[in-house]
Predict the structure of glycine--tRNA ligase.
Amino acid sequence: MPQDVVTMDKIVALCKRRGFIFPSSEIYGGLGSTYDYGHYGVLLKTNVKNAWWQAMLSREDIVALDSAILQHPRVWEASGHVGGFSDPMVDCRTCKGRFRADHVADLQCPQKPSKCPGEGPDCDLTEARAFNLMFQTHVGPVQDTASVAYLRPETAQGIFINFKNVLQFSRKKPPFGIAQVGKSFRNEITPGNFIFRTREFEQMEMEFFVPPAEAEQWYQHWIEERRTWYTDLGIRPDHLEIRAHAADELSHYSSGTSDVEYLFPIGWSELEGIANRGNFDLTQHAEFSGEKLEYFDQASGERYVPHVIEPAAGADRATLAFLVDSYDEEEVDGETRTVLRLHPRLAPVKVAILPLVRKEGQPELAREIHDLLRFAMQTEYDEGGSIGKRYRRQDEIGTPWCVTVDHQSIEDRTVTVRDRDSLTQERIAIDDLPALFGGRLAAPWTTPKLAA
């Protein structure tokens, strides 16, 4: 495998420089592991989420849901989050730092970075204790035990508690799925590595309800489906792997869990988990709520609690993986060109329209082209700076094609279309541009980094 030029530092710098992602509350000194998405970051993450929705809702056996962030506290008692959603935590009495006890060997001592917490000459760690990861809040004007609520730590439970509602209105029967995208919140002890692990994050989860006898085959099906989703969107196959959890890693209710892992600059790390959750969740919520959460098959007369296969992905982690995998550098005319070789479907901007000069009617014609394309795809008009600098800027935000308007364009209504990856340029009639770019966006695409 050829050595990648990408590092996490380069990704962080590019995201800040080009307005993808930057620290939240920066003018106040920031708030640890919270980030704001700028214009291009919003467009990129939205494209990632839309691609996920497309993969889910193009099927006839999946419906959509958007459940509330605040839910009845009993939801989290039934799911086990109130009693068991915790990590082991240690404090350092010297530096007042807090660390996950099971991650200490991978962390740096704040006072002596060459050492791990506990190894420095002045370190004084406490005994490990359980730390619940849920953010607690209060509903209503009075803050007492009766008003306690939680910001949801996952989107899955909102799906389970709506199983009966969806079953009634959707006219679906197992096997079928309920998909949702939304924010979750976990009070992580040691978040880090940019947007890889944060306290506020966005999940893309689907719960697939199946007859118990079909659970294993659907588990294998969704492992392959989710691997293919990443590679179809340009992730290099040799940077992905499926890692099955060992028996001692499995949740008590899971008969099988596999992670889709990606080779980040920080090493192999989880992008998505696919779990065979059995009937644990529906059974728990039925017990705690008193509602029957089962399916009755009128044809066979069989009544059962469906088993659940759960592909759960992070929108932020997926966005980071696509940024990392697309990052590239190459020498062009004696200078280093930084480029994001994003799949055109994911690119924040599909086409940039650039007048060569700001005179001779070129800006006006460029605006006409912008109006011709912008309702069909995300486009950007840019007339500031030299054409070379504008090309480099579009390369860094991953724009696959640039349309340059020059003096010849005024004469014959043709423009130069520049390809981001090959750097080839061709003359195209303005009227042919919508069909050209529409066809390219719909066509299969393979990252040119595979040929490197």
